[in-house]
Amino acid sequence: MPRPIQATIHTAALRHNLATARLAAPDAQVWAVVKANAYGHGIERAFEGLRGADGFALLDLNEAERVRALGWRGPILLLEGVFEPRDLELCSRLNLWHTVHCDEQIDMLAQHKTQEPHRIFLKMNSGMNRLGFSPQRFRSAWTRLNALPQVDEISLMTHFSDADGPKGIAQQMARFEEATRDLPGERSVCNSAATLRHAHAASVKADWVRPGIAVYGSAPDFPEHSAAHWGLRPAMSLNAKIIATQSLAVGDSVGYGSAFVANKAMRVGIVACGYADGYPRLCPTGTPVLVEGARSRTLGRVSMDMLVVDLTDLPQAGMGSGVTLWGQSAQGTVLSIDEVAQAAGTVGYELMCALAQRVPVMVED
Fold first, then answer.
1. 35 an active-site residue?
2. Per-residue pLDDT reduced to its tens digit, 183-236
3. Is 256 part of the annotated catalytic residue set?
């Protein structure tokens, strides 16, 4: 039989989370962000749950081709724009909208030969300091684009660095509003955190919002708020089974480096999941897991193919028992991926994207 580990993509959860984002910004159209292979969920697997979006936002041309191959005829936005002139040919063929964030991309457009002008999202660097034109240079970039016959409608975009924390978005929003005052075009300003926390504010004018992590059931501002606080459901569950049990006496250790030593008589379960499956090696003793839906913890170091869980208070659990590493258990209880990520000193995004190819994946509604 196959090794007892499986990831499940929950189509109904994707649909629900997308609707939750839409409710948070009821006057805006919604991009479903599917970069990084739909945050590790798989574009083809996630598509059915996200096809209610107004458009798909992603990074590279291969992802755009895959979305078009699924039958999507609506808007697709390249969030980082094109990387070389020939990319514009595929933008024309696939009818892709694309971001412009630097002079070099405007140069490429100026030299591009096309019969159909392109829809552009002109990006401002309002404080993130990654991509985009400074507020002082934004209007000149807009003027230059607007003069090109290769360009049709120009939308205006920025990205918030602190939407998930106390600093908030007010300062960046003010810079964006000042620099774009009286410029025509739709606005796209909100990522997941800004959509859930700030999109309702009268000062936030957004024609498009760009929820990413929230669509997949992770809280963008964890630990201040949980996914449950925002009404989000896990779109990915990682489940495995116990393949052996051991009884420990006082002083017995567990795993490599004897990183955990029992201070009482204990019973432990060996789970068919390790860092080669995408489970974080840095998860320490005490990382939460669900065993047959009941909360427990890991013990010792995570190995390549196995990890150890505490069964001392779960006498009903044993060989073949189901273990939920994150997501939803067969019993319906939920372990947020954010909790597991926090234990590993990272974020839920990384765990989703790190799911290993060797883990079989099924899709359910």
1. yes
2. 999 999 999 999 999 998 878 889 999 999 999 999 999 999 999 999 999 999
3. yes
